[in-house]
Amino acid sequence: MATDEIKAPPHFSSEREEAEWWDNNPDFILQELRRAKAEGRLGHGTAVRRATEKQAAKSTTIRLDEGDLNLARTQAERKGLRYQTYLKMLIHEALGREEAAAGKQ
Fold it and tell me: Is the full-model pTM beyond 0.70?
């Protein structure tokens, strides 16, 4: 199926199936962004800021306990992700939770 014919990703029965679909449809998000731009639906989130400001993510180094690192690798593998991507996702989610909790105080 050509990417321009896809209206929405299908329902996936597993994370591995979903990862394979995204690997086979790499232009889907670009298609959606172009459609949103044409319809005036783009917001002012991170993707828009990076695209307009052309700023790259900053690199950092952190030291992790070997057990935590092994656990992250195991969990990331189960999700079909690279462990660095998985750790970045976990940090992002935790920061969001903390910010939301601080806003409720």
Answer: no
